[in-house]
Design goal:
This protein is of the alpha/beta class. It has a single domain (25-214), classed as Glucose-6-phosphate isomerase like protein, domain 1 (Rossmann fold). It contains 10 helices and 5 strands. The chain has helices spanning 8-21, 24-40, 51-68, 83-92, 95-106, 123-129, 132-136, 168-191, 200-208, 211-214; strands at 43-47, 75-77, 112-117, 141-146, 159-162. It has a 5-stranded parallel beta sheet, with helices on one face. Helix 2 crosses helix 8, helix 3 runs parallel beside helix 8 and helix 5 runs parallel beside helix 6 (123-129). The longest helix is centred in the last third of the chain and has 24 residues, at 168-191. GO terms for molecular function: carbohydrate derivative binding; isomerase activity. This is Phosphoheptose isomerase. It comes from Prochlorococcus marinus str. MIT 9302. It holds the Pfam family SIS_2. Keywords: Isomerase.
């Protein structure tokens, strides 16, 4: 079937419609959980494939840098931090098992596990949720952030945040928007807390992002 030509206006409307329809209360709930994890140096583990994997790398690195400069000790990771492990596990066992092997080795109490997916049906993510440690370990929280109808993984995690779109690339755009928003929200909460000590390094982020909103 032939479709009409895509225009930037049409694409931006699809992103805007998704933004306006998403459950902002759930995003703020996730933000609060991440803030606790950052303050208590609990693990935050992000998993995804393809564009979601690229977003996981971006989010992990971005959060590590920003919140380390605020004096916190973030423990945020993704399997793609160690490509040697990921390729070896995929070669020796199977790619569909590699995330489960990774998660089994790093998951601990008080962790937050975040699955990023467009369809929510990636077999390697589903296998993580069906692993023994995932179902036996207590006192950790799992989130799935998926588009389309949510997919199988949305029913296997403690919390599910739905991105209301059927466009895979809009879904990936939304992943970054969500986590950029959370980062700015948490940054402000931390620097406005009574025990925060300002440094010149930590002030750079404010000047490059939030200052542009308030000036």
């Amino acid at each position: 079937m032939k479709e009409s030509l895509k225009t930037f206006k049409k694409y931006s409307q699809e992103v805007t419609e998704s933004l306006q329809s998403i459950d902002s209360l759930k995003i703020d709930n996730l933000a609060n959980k991440i803030l606790i994890a950052l303050k208590q140096s609990n693990k935050i583990i992000i998993l995804g494939n393809g564009g979601s994997a690229a977003n996981a790398i971006h989010i992990a690195g971005d959060y590590m840098k920003t919140f380390s400069l605020l004096g916190l000790k973030p423990r945020i990771s993704t399997p793609f931090d160690n490509l040697c492990f990921l390729t070896a596990a995929s070669n020796d066992v199977d790619y569909s098992e590699s995330f489960k092997i990774y998660l089994d080795s790093v998951l601990e109490k008080s962790s937050i596990v975040i699955f990023l997916s467009g369809s929510g049906n990636s077999i390697n993510l589903i296998k993580c949720c069906n692993s023994k440690i995932f179902n036996c370990l207590e006192e950790f929280e799992s989130w799935s952030i998926t588009a389309f109808e949510g997919g199988k993984i949305s029913k296997l995690t403690d919390e599910f945040l739905h991105i209301p779109t059927r466009d895979m690339e809009v879904a990936e755009d939304m992943q970054l928007i969500i986590f950029h928003y959370i980062k700015q929200k948490l940054y402000l909460e931390i620097i406005n807390s009574s025990d925060y000590q300002e440094t010149s390094d930590s002030n750079k982020y404010y000047k490059r992002t939030i200052l542009n909103e308030v000036s």
